[in-house]
Amino acid sequence: MYIVDRRLNPGSKSLENRQRFLRRAKALVQGAVKKTSQERDIKDVLEGGEVAIPLDGMTEPRFRREGGTRDMVLPGNKKFVEGDVLPRSGQSGGSPSEPGEGEGEDAFRFVLSRDEFVDLFLDDLELPDLAKRRLTEAESVSLQRAGYTTSGSPANISISRTVQLALARRVALRRPRRETIAELEAALAECTDEDRRAVLAAELEALMAKAKRIPFIDPLDIRFRRFESVPKPVAQAVMFCLMDVSGSMSEHMKDLAKRFYMLLYVFLTRRYRHVEIVFIRHTDRAEEVDENTFFHGPASGGTLVSSALAAMSEIVRARFSPADWNIYAAQASDGDNSYADSELTSRLLTDMILPVTQFFAYLEVGDTSGGPFDMPDSSLWSLYQRLQAEGAPLSMRKVSDRSEIFPVFKDLFHRRTKQEKVAS
Amino acid sequence: MTATGERLFEGADWDFQALQRIHDACEEVALGELGLDVYPNQIEVITAEQMLDAYSSVGMPLFYKHWSFGKQFAHQETFYRKGLMGLAYEIVINSSPCISYLMEENTATMQTLVIAHAAFGHNHFFKNNYLFKQWTDADGILDYLDFAKNYIAQCEERHGRLAVEVTLDAAHALMSHGIDRYPGKKKLDLRAEEKRAGDRRQHEESAFNDLWRTVPAGKVKTRSVLSAERRRTLLGLPQENILYFLEKTAPRLQPWQREILRIVRHIAQYFYPQSQTKVMNEGTATYVHYRIMSRLHEQGRLSDGNFLEFLQSHTNVVFQPSFDDQRFSGFNPYALGFAMMQDIERIVTKPDEEDRQWFPDIAGKGDAMAVLRDVWANYRDESFISQFLSPRLMRHFRMFHLHDDPTEAGILVDAIHNERGYRGIRRELARQYDVGYIDPNIEVVDVDLAGDRRLMLRHAVVKGAQLQETDTKRVLQHLADLWTYDVSLVEVDTSGNVLKEYVVSPRGVSAAA
User: Fold this and answer.
1) What is the domain count for chain A?
2) pTM
């Protein structure tokens, strides 16, 4: 009989099969993931979890029979006698074939891991090419283990490695073991024969001398842990959500904006270890608020976009030094802005905001009725378009329906070829 | 055997020495007292996750890759995480050496139970039952699976993952109709397979002779000469092994596609005996573990506490809910099998008048193990039940027979566990386990060689049970993709009336290209 311990074998043998399954069901799973994510809060959207996909397309059909006359033998008779006729309805006597039986479950449920979930969610997207600017700036440095060295500070001695080398050396040089010496000493003490004693004594002396010559630990054996310093990329990002909450913004528009922010948050969390969100809402003046107030708090007033930009730039100066933070901003608005504000807005944007942000997206939300092409260019849109034409690095899109959010987001972060990057 | 009285282990913890002691103790009882004959054992300790893995690829250690196994895995993992499903304590593979998987979470008692159950009970059954002897090759299966896995991986490299997947999907859909039910066994052996391929090639080369081209052809055979009768003989029709038929005759399959069909067919064939012997197989294993565990307890090698733990899980395993119970899902093969084995033991050793009348051959014969070993070797579920289900057991399970005719107003209770009903119930129950009734009877009947090369299938409808429409269309679609011409299927009842006809055309040539 053999006993084999397979627990150490690489696990997840089914991983490959699972991936095949996901690949095959990709379209369906992606749909399910999007659907699931719509019901979640911004911060929870990342968590993996159960999804249900329609079984269609994933079926493994077989020839099966249904209906017909059936005979069955069942256990547990309590009161039936031969010749009884049982009514067909109800549970008794085994369920007769039901119409549609065998169509299978309508949905196939299974659990996606967090990574799989986000992967499917953000499949095919990447951050715009923007980290370059950061790299030139000073970055923090961290230490990383890099093997062993023969010199170093005593605090860094690697005991296990040192002892290992010492042992190897002692074995190689045949240093007498302590037990051997002890044995020999005992033999010497017991021995009465003079000649034999002399031989033993000589042997013992030789061994002792050898043990002395070959030290237990030689300076040669000592090894130190070596560290290298590696530049640490800025691993934190802040995301500014700017939104116009003046009376002209309907619930529908806010919902659109929320969805966009959600996607951006998920996306950033994938790239950065730590992501902060700052919500700035504005009417004719701007204030920083929490998420709930941001989306649901009532507010009214005129519209001055520059107030939000000024607030953002103030917050950046106070709390988020561009050297330590990657700054992202997404602005959502219905496009209304007073004409008098244009000048200030464009100056703030080009001078204060754009130089420090990695990415600035403007999302113009419209009502459900018209498609994005029916929306006339608003004042803000025209302004930003002008700035963009002048070479300002900002991205802008129009959205009017929930279903467009994801395509627009995808479009913004779509993996681009070199030429496209230059063009956009 | 003398009572050694030395405990095999204490408490619930086990280590590898303990497993060895447990195995040796079980072996002593199994071979010495029960006279079992087993393959050498190999016991593998695995984690719960690996158990799930094994589950989802039909319990086989090395299996080719396919998305359907991933789907299984995802599905079962969900259940397992929710706690809806416990995992089996063990999986055992019919191979030589016989591999039993033990989960690391099991307690020492459970490991003993599992070793007795799988490594001796199932193992003996695999080695001795005629169906397994006839249909499976325990020495070759691991090699063959290895060959299959590598071959399919190679195909994926050469012909693309998608093409292989399409072929496998189609083959899986037809898997239940890829079984030879009658002829002798095939050797599943890597070396033989390779040699066969080589020989075939060599023969083709050596038999090539350009002269044959110049030999004057005989009289052109008219259509009447090549009658339908003769054509069907040439094609080996009617043929119920659809995969075999496709492998041999489908006009536009690539050689590698044929090989894949062959692999799927072989694997279906390998599992064929298992589906026919569920009750017997589990009954044997349960009976054996019960005997071994009781004996170990008698010898004092299992403490009372451990034995109680065993009895608790044993009782769970052989629990048979009644038909109106929420937990009911047909007969529990463990319960029925174990009850029948014990009943046979009783009939052989302490028969009453009724037993002598019903089982004159074995009643009072005295040597229960000899009778049981003979039963285990020579029966399958259907014949086993129709021979050995005793009136006493029918009373014990309170069996009754329902006849459900959709044209009648209600369901008729046809027989109950009384003098008049015994034989009827036994016959019906045996029929429930008859593979001939379980699988729909579908055959390839003809190919329209002169016309549009349509493949014609026939389903012989039994007792009015027709094929489920959606699934049937899907399977036929797969079949048509492999055949690359139209496929038709007619459902014919016993008096020859056509109940329904399906015709499916292939989806482009992508499957065959």
Assistant:
1) 3
2) 0.68
